[in-house]
Amino acid sequence: MLKIKNLHAKVEGLKILKGIDLEINAGEVHAIMGPNGSGKSTLSSVIAGKEEYEVTRGEIIFEGEELTEFDPEERAHKGVFLSFQYPVEIPGVTVTNFMRTVINANRKARGEKDMPANEMLKKIREKSELLEIDRKFLSRSLNEGFSGGEKKRNEIFQMAMLEPKLAILDETDSGLDIDALRIVANGVNKLRRPDNATLVITHYQRLLDHIIPDFVHVMLDGKIVKSGGKELAYELEEKGYDWIKEEVGA
Amino acid sequence: MELKDKLLSSFLAFEENVDMHTDIHEIRSRAIKDFEEKGFPTRKQEAWKYTSLNKVLKHDYTVFPKKEDTIDYRDVEKYFIDDIDTYKIVFIDGIYASHLSATTHEKIDACLMSSALNSSKYKPIIDNYFNTVAPKESLTSLNTAFSREGAFINIPKNTMADKPIQVINFSTGNESALLVQPRNLIVVGENSHVQIIERHQSLTDHPVLTNSVTEIYADKRAIVDYYKIQNDNHQASLIDNTFIEQHRESNCSVHTFSFGGNLTRNNLNFYQKGERIDSTLKGITVIGGKQHVDHNTLVHHIEPNCESHQDYKGVFGESSTGVFNGKIIVNKEAQKTNAFQANNNILLDDKATINSKPQLEIFADDVKCSHGCTIGQLDDDALFYLRSRGIPLKEARALLMYAFANNVLESVKIPELKARITKIIALKLGVNVGYSL
Question: Which helix (H) or strand (E) holds A35?
Fold first, then answer.
C-alpha cells in the first residue's frame, strides 16, 4: 500500500528526515517510536502533504502513485488520513457541519453527489457511538474548548467517518487519560480491515497495549534504525532509547 | 461646476417645490448655510484621514431625478428578505414606491418622512425629534437641507412591533449619475421594541452616491435592533450617517454587513443619555477589488453604569482598503462604564490595506475599557488541517473566513436574515460551502 524509499525532507533549511525506508501493506499495523526530535511527526506531515516540508530526495509511493505530486486534499481523496497531534480549533463551525463539509468534499472529488441528509445523520450517529461521543458534543464548535482527550476522540471520529485506506495516528495517545485511551484504541481496532492499514506514531508503549502492532520501528535522528515485532516496544519501554543509540553507533 | 456649487444652486430650485413657511424649512435653510460654510470633508480632517471623497464627488450628479421609475417586484425580489413577513418602506431614486411597499399606521407607524413632515398629526414628534440627534456636520447638514423623503418609524410606548421593518432604497439607471439623500427618523417609545433592516441597492452601472442620515431615538427600556445590508454594485457609493440617542436602560444594536459598493463610509454614533444603557456595534466586512469600506464609530458614555460592545471583523482581498476608526468618550460623570472594542482583520493579498485606529477619551476613573486590534493572514496550520480532510484550498479558505466572521453573526436575532447574510458571504467568496452556520 505505502512504500517509502530513501526519503529526505527539510523544513526551513533544516534536514529532518535523512533517508527513511518503510513499507506498509494492507491489513497491517505499524508503529514508529522514537525520542523527541527524531522526526516522527515530520514524517507524518510529509506523508499528508504539509507544504512547509520540502522533500529533497526519495519517494513516497501510495497504491502505485507518487504522493508528493499531490496536494493535501488530493491525498485525502486517495485515502490518506492524518490524526493530528494538535488538532486545530475552528470556532463557529460545528462538528456536524464540519463532518458534512468533509464527507461531501470527498464525495465530490470522486464524482459522487452529496450524501443525503438522513444517510449522513445515520452515519454520524453510528460512528459517534463507536467513539462514545455525546450528541451535545456534535453541535459544539470544532475542537474549540475541547479537552485533550475530546480532541483526540474527535480525530478518530473523523477517521471513522472517512474510512481511509491509510490512517496515520500522530501521538494520538498524548493527553489521554486511561479511559479515553481505551475508547480511542477500541475505535481504531474496530475500524481495522484487511484492506486498510494503520501507522501509529508514539512516544510510549502504552497505546500499543491496546492497538497491537505487527511491526515496530525505531526512529532516531531522521532514520529508521531498527525494526522488529511488538516485543521491541516493550524492550524500549523498559530500557529507553540509549541502548539502541549505542547499538547503531549514533 | 463643482458639486458643492451645484448643490447650493439646487437648493434654490428645491425651495420652489416645498412649503417655505414651515419650521422644517427654517431647519433646512440653516443646514444649507452650515454646509456652505463647511463644504465636503477632506483628508485634512482627522476623521477623514484614510477616506478621500475626491473621486466620488467628481461625477455630475443629478440631484432631482425626473420621475418615479417603475420596477417590477419580480426583478428586485432578491433584494428583499422575503421569507418572513415584514413591513416595507421602499424608495426608487429617492421617491416612494407604493407598489413595492407595505406600510402601516395601526399599532405603529412605519411610513414616509414626507407624510410625517407634512401632517399635523406627527408635528409634535417631528418638532421633538427631527434633527435633534444628528450633529451639525457638513454631510448631515447637506442631507438636512434637502430632507424631504425617507422612512418614518414611530413606535408608541409599551409596543412591540409585530414584524420587522425593511427600508430599501433602489436606484435606477435613468440618470447618468445620481445623488440621493434619504432621511430617516425612528422614534421608539418607552418599553417598546423594533427590528429594522436597511438596504441601499443600485440597479444600474451608472454612478450613484447616497448620503443617508438616520436618527434613532430610543426612550427608556426601548430595544432597537438595526441591520444594515451593504451589498451594492461597484459603481455605488454610500455615506451612511446614523445617530442613536439612548435613554435609561435601553438596548440598541446596529449590525453592519459590508460586502459591496465602491466607497462606503459608515458614521455610526451612539449617545448614551441615561443609566444602565447597553449599546452594541457589530460589523462584518468582506471586500475585494478596489473597494473601500470605512467604519467610523463613536460611543459617547455620558451617564454612569452603561455598557458598549463593539466587534468589527474584516476580510480584505486584492487591493481593497478598510478603515476602522473607533472612538469612545467616557465623561467624568460616567463612572462604572464598561466599554469594549475589538477590530480583527484578515488581509488576503499583499495589496490589501487596513487602517485601524482606536481613540479612547476617558475622563472618569472607575471604568473598564478594552480595545484590541489584530491584522493577520489565514492560519496555515488551520488550512492544512482542513485540506488534509479533503477540503479543497478555496473552500478551506472560505471556511476559515466563515469561522472568523461567525461570532458577529451570532447576535443577529432574525434567523432568516442570518441565513441570507451567510449566503451573501458564500457568494462573495465564490464557494458553495453547503451548510448554514
Answer: none
pLDDT, one tens digit per residue, over B41-62 is 999 999 999 999 999 999 999 9
Contact A73 B406 (CB under 8 A): no
- A109–B contact, CB cutoff 8 A: yes
Residue A250 has pLDDT above 60, yes or no: no
Give the closest-approach CA distance of A48 to chain B in angstroms: 7
- Measured between alpha carbons, how far is residue B163 from residues A27, B94, B193, B243, B410 in Å? 61, 24, 10, 23, 20
Task: For residue B387, give the nearest of A52, A72, A90 by CB distance.
Answer: A72
Where are the domains positioned within chain B? Answer: 3-273, 297-377
Report chain A residues whose CB lies below 8 A from the CB of B403.
90-93
A87–chain B Cβ distance below 8 A for any pair: yes
Compute how many other C-beta atoms are within 10 angstroms of the C-beta atom of residue B411.
14
A76 contacts in chain B (CB < 8 Å): 387-390
Amino acid at B149: E
What's the DSSP call for residue B434? -
State the average pLDDT for chain A: 93
Domains of chain A: 2-248 (3.40.50.300)
Which residues on chain B are in Cβ contact (under 8 Å) with A87?
A: 385
**How does pLDDT run across A82-92, given as a tens digit for each residue?**
999 999 999 87
